[in-house]
Amino acid sequence: MPLIIFPTSQLLWVRVAALLFTCVAFSVAAHGANVDGGMADWCIFCWAFSFACTLLVLLVEQFGLQARAPVSWSNFPITIACYATLLCLSASVIFPLYFLKYQQHRSDAARDHRIVSTVFSCLATVAYMGEVSLSRARPGEVAGYMATAPGLLKVCQTFVACVIFILVSNPVLYDSHAALKWCMAVYCICFILSMAVVVLCVGECTGCLPIPFSKFLSAYGLLAVIMYLTATIIWPVFQFDKQYHGRSYGSSNLITVAVLTALNFLLYLADLAYTARLVFVTV
């Protein structure tokens, strides 16, 4: 009787583990955790999106369909894994914070379901971190751009920018002064350009640029560092200094945005440093 043997590897088992962990996390949360609201929807989306994308990657690789995929397969899986890491990490923080910390009055069954979802979300985060670690480019290795440090930093930059957008939009925190509107412009411009780089690499369209891709990355990286440096200085000055009528409400969001702005500045600075000395081959 012939046997069907699937090729196995450490990377495969890590993906299978992530698939199972995310499946359990969103299934338990949706079935018996008794959660609702925007934060619950966000957490379930994080787990379900990560599960669906991981399942897609597994099916394509197990059936050998990489050549037929309309994306660069040297860039797509690790990009998905990096985003899934950040999504599951955010869900692992948000879910217990909103649905465990201040919900002691709920039934024991619902609380048990929430604890299970939180545990498996943390396990999924670790699994995706393992996948990124196994997939990233090693020194001297020919790999897609997204598998290099600058590529992974681009994913982090776009994710942090998305969190900033959420925080400054409800309530609106950037409409009291023109300098704060400049900060918002910095967040938007840098997010669009970073996401454009991700899409170009995953879509294998870097050759469509009118200038060499490496020069575009260097010029954009320098521009983003300068722009984020201004935002890192301007945001806390115009939000907290009473001379500029700093706000008294939404202070936690203001502080978080200031911290995330500084974090993204460091990410762009590290990106520029890596890009300045990185030699890569687009596959």
Question: Can you give keywords for this protein?
Answer:
mainly alpha; single chain; 71% helix; disordered C terminus; disordered N terminus; 8 helices; 283 residues
SS strand fraction: under 5%
Radius of gyration: 21 Å
**Beta strand count:** 0
Morphology call: flat
Succession of helices and strands:
HHHHHHHH
Helix- and strand-based class? mainly alpha
Which segments are poorly predicted (pLDDT under 50) over 5 or more consecutive residues? 1-5, 279-283
The biggest sheet, with number of strands, parallel, antiparallel or mixed sense and barrel status, is:
none
Distance between the termini: 40 Å
Number of helices: 8
Describe the protein's architecture and organization.
It is a single chain. This protein is 71% helix and 0% strand. Helix 1 (10-32) packs antiparallel against helix 4 and helix 7 (213-240) runs antiparallel to helix 8. The radius of gyration is 21 Å and the shape is flat. It has 283 residues and is mainly alpha-helical.
